[in-house]
Design brief:
- This protein has one domain (2-130).
- The protein is α+β, with helices and mostly antiparallel strands.
- It has 5 helices and 5 strands; from the N terminus they run H-E-H-H-E-E-E-E-H-H.
- Strand 3 and strand 4 (78-82) form a beta hairpin.
- Helix 3 packs antiparallel against helix 5 (113-130).
- The chain is globular.
- It holds the Pfam family DUF5753.
- This is DUF5753 domain-containing protein.
């Protein structure tokens, strides 16, 4: 919950690129996904939040092997790599630059914000219809 509070902090800006594979993958009950899609769609209306979907057919030039968070709000930018067992914090400038470059590639190849919103709404309707 603490992470989510930052979304409403004045002066904060967030860019999310979510792979289509992550959106379509469901290990459990489909019904549980509907509120998650609603939350993404709601957050996407905030003026300081940009949500984009990286489609499966987009050539990213980069294998997406793990999630990561790129923080640039401080004098010392950092990347948090999310693994199954822990989070790894990277502060080395070369490593941060690598992740910044990867993020930019994903942004460039992702759907626009409007296309992403339409995609999320369509996928939500499809899932809700099957649940």
């Amino acid at each position: 919950m603490k992470r989510q509070e930052a979304l409403y902090r004045e002066g904060s800006r967030f860019e999310f690129v979510i792979t289509e594979a992550a959106l379509r993958w469901h290990a459990e009950d489909l019904v549980a996904l509907v509120p998650q899609f609603d939350r993404l769609l709601s957050l996407g209306t905030l003026p300081n939040v940009r949500i984009q979907v990286l489609p499966l057919d987009a050539s990213s030039g980069q294998v997406q092997s793990h999630g990561f968070l790129l923080y640039e709000e401080s004098e010392e930018p950092r990347v948090i790599v999310e693994t199954y067992t822990r989070e790894i914090v990277l502060t080395d400038s070369d490593e941060v630059l690598s992740y910044r470059t990867i993020h930019q590639r994903f942004v460039e190849r992702a759907l626009s914000e409007t296309e992403s919103r339409d995609f999320l709404q369509a996928l939500r309707r499809r899932i809700d219809g099957r649940s």
